[in-house]
Amino acid sequence: MRVSAEELASGKLLPATIELAVQLIQVNGYVLIEEVLPRTQIDQLNNRIGDFLEGFMAKNEFSLEEGFHDGTNHIGMYLPFEQPFCDESLIAHPFVMDIVDQILGSDCELTYFASNTSMPKGTKSQDVHADMGARFGSRFGVNVPITNLVVNYPLVDVNDENGPMEVWPGGTHLHPDSWYSCKVVNKPELAPHMLSFKAHMPAGSIMIRDDRMWHRGTPNRSDKPRPNIALIYSSTSTAPYQGGLQIPQETYDQFSDRAKQLVRKQKIGAEVIKPY
Ligand SMILES: O=C(O)CCC(=O)C(=O)O
């Protein structure tokens, strides 16, 4: 979906837009809001993440040609809680907050701060997966409410060429809880018989998805990385008592009340992590 020029200018979604986005997530598993963040900001984020990816590849002695991570050439990398990544326009984007609050409650928390990148020359897709296993395993046979929402910010235009995320919306997030136990169902066996699509997203779009929706990274046939920032917001009743994000005191002190609330259970006053 796209939002109106007025909503973009005011940074405020209309109630009808919020309702549509919330219902799309609840019923279809995700919503994609196209082209929200300014290109200049996205380019700055992409350049910085590009530096980190180079360092990450070197440190791990990964070679694009030889391939890594089972030939997927996919890198999951934690992000340091520093600029330009910890900007409030990312961690507390007003559109994201409007939607996430409706689903997880306005006391929800930011619990994950990372990135996923499809690097060039991958030869295989990832296995189809959900980001969260069963909450209650086989002891619980009905669907439970959404407790985690993943927010992805693509940092380049994503098309068929450069490793789009493939998603299985429309119900994979709505199966009984035990469905998400890896022992219960073989997702890669079922997925080819089910409807999926490759999510093309202009840079600066926002994808918000139930973490249970099936998806996978696909190979990147371009010559440039395809990074997605990946944040997770969790309902406070299911978030860990002590979060793991390391946030320097000065960074925390400069945050708005909303951003402070989002990270309240994280490691405030800890050193920023190194991404590699
Ligand atoms: O950004 C993507 O392509 C999705 C990657 C993914 O699902 C993963 O690495 O677990």
From TrEMBL:
GO MF terms held by the record: dioxygenase activity
Pfam families hit by this protein: PhyH
InterPro entries, alphabetized: Fungal_Metabolite_Diox, Phytyl_CoA_dOase-like
Transmembrane feature ranges: none
Keyword Oxidoreductase tagged: yes
Record keywords, A-Z: Dioxygenase, Oxidoreductase
Keyword Transmembrane in record: no
Protein name: Phytanoyl-CoA dioxygenase family protein
Source species of the chain: Paenibacillus lignilyticus
